[in-house]
Amino acid sequence: MTLTSDASLDPAGLVAIAVAHGLALFVAVSMAANISGGHVNPAVTLGLAVGGNITIFTGIMYWIFQLLGSTVACLLLKFVTNGLKG
């Protein structure tokens, strides 16, 4: 799916997309650093819980809110793009 019909998929366009994703992840980790230590990925949370760095209860709570946040983000994207389909 593309949001525009003239989306660039040449090497420079792909690098720009990768850099944009990297910067977005950097911002997300920076925002969450003081709250959860910067782990915004449920797999990282699982690793920290299994490794004993956080309690299982804390890990479950982080999972709930990480998954809830991704669900809200998907719904917001659907709303902003008027349910655009590729």
TrEMBL record:
Keywords: Membrane, Repeat, Transmembrane, Transmembrane helix, Transport, Vacuole. Gene3D superfamilies: Glycerol uptake facilitator protein (1.20.1080.10). It comes from the Eukaryota. GO terms for cellular component: vacuolar membrane. The chain crosses the membrane at residues 12-34, 54-77. It is a multi-pass membrane protein. It is found in: Vacuole membrane. One of its GO terms (molecular function) is channel activity. Belongs to the MIP/aquaporin (TC 1.A.8) family. TIP (TC 1.A.8.10) subfamily. This is Aquaporin. The lineage of its organism: Eukaryota, Viridiplantae, Streptophyta, Embryophyta, Tracheophyta.
